[in-house]
Amino acid sequence: MTPAAGPDLILPTMEAPLRAKGFVFVGAEGMHAELARYGLRDWNSFAASWNRLGIDRYMADGGRYRRRRHATFAVGGDGLRRKKHQPHYQSRDYNELNGGIERWFRAVEPEIGAHPAMQAIMRLMYRIVTDLTPPERRPEAWHAEIHQFRIEALPEQPGHPTPEGLHRDGVDWVLVLMIRRENVMSGETTIHDLQRRMVGTFMLDRPMDAAIVDDNRVYHGVTAVRPIDPSRPAYRDVLVVTFRHQ
User: Fold this and answer.
1) Domain presence at residue 228
2) Which has the least CB within 10 A, 2, 95, 123, 189?
3) Domain count, the chain
4) Residue 34: partners with Cβ closer than 8 Å, 6 or more residues away
5) Which element (helix H / strand E) includes 110?
6) Are 240 and 146 in contact (CB under 8 A)?
7) What is the pLDDT of residues 138-175, one digit of tens each?
8) What CATH number is given to the structural domain containing 240?
9) Among 69, 152, 162, 59, which Cα is nearest to 113's?
10) Is residue 160, in this structure, part of any structural domain at all?
């Protein structure tokens, strides 16, 4: 999974802060430049697929403000292989609200799983997690999960991007990539160390703004989103990609 020729910004702008602090915010310009090196094309058709998600019916808080699709991949030096559709599972140690059960979500559409944008995102993440994992701890293939999320905000009910609150995901690495914000306010990302002291805060505001976190070293959370104009649809679309050892 070799990138195209061009200036390599990964080490100074992504990997160095990740190594030092356990998290990094990457602005849209830098993320676009790196994804382009890994084959990013046709972003608009990729982003449009967020209009075709299914309701998350596993919300223990009773909310119906979250839509999503899910898929799993094996990612290694020989490329990406999509796995048979399977449930998403988190123990209650990591997700007190919705954990402890197998959650079957709609599968990511085949053409979106194979989309040049998705492939570029996965290749970039593979490069980063490989660089930051000592050789003796690198798996032959990483288990990767992709989650398409839409959080809807209604006048009478805010949308909660992280309804479980401040949390870790029980994986090794997490990417949160902004797809689109439509008519919403707030949605601020906060990062906390293992003693739950805040160590960073930022807003994923523009398409391709991104956060990458070392899930073994930090907690993360996102504040609720509310509509700016209550008469219009309001939502926050993100892609979450996780990598963990098999």
Assistant:
1) yes
2) 2
3) 1
4) 9, 10, 14, 26, 124
5) helix 110-113
6) yes
7) 999 999 999 999 999 988 889 888 777 898 989 999 99
8) 2.60.120.620
9) 69
10) yes
Tell me how far apart the alpha carbons of residues 164 and 90 are, in angstroms, rounded to a whole number. 12
- CB-based contact 53:148 (threshold 8 Å): yes
Structure tokens at 73: 């991949």
Residues 23 and 199: their CA atoms lie apart, in Å, by 9
Nearest residue to 24 via CA among 195, 174, 181, 134: 174
Residue 1, domain member (yes or no): no
User: Per the domain annotation, does 220 fall within a domain?
Assistant: yes
- DSSP3 helix / strand / coil % (the chain, rounded to 5): 25, 35, 40
Which residues, including other chains, have CB under 8 Å from residue 44's CB and lie 6 or more apart? none
Q: Which two tokens stand for residue 83?
A: 């796995």
- Whole-angstrom Cα distance, residue 193 to residue 213? 11
What strands lie across the sheet with 219-222, from one edge to the other? 198-203, 188-192, 219-222
> How many whole angstroms separate alpha carbon 119 and alpha carbon 229?
35
What would the pLDDT profile of 196-218 be if each residue is shown by its tens digit?
Answer: 999 999 999 999 999 999 999 99
